Amino acid sequence: MTLQFRLMKLEYPVADSGEIVVSLAKTAQDAFNQMKIGNNSREMMKNGFFCHIGTGKCGDFWTAVFAQPRY
Length: 71
Description:
By secondary structure, the chain is of the alpha+beta class. It is 32% helix and 28% strand.
């Protein structure tokens, strides 16, 4: 399921949302450390406009989703 579809299903705005995906991290701390490496990822994490944040794990993949407030 795409990020846009998941956001729409939960009634979040799709524009200007973001998602960071990393793989092969053994712990949540390892995943977070990998997410901090990229400039775009760091900027997304520091953006105060995203006030709804979700994290998850599926198999070897860790994800962090950043969304705007609901309307």
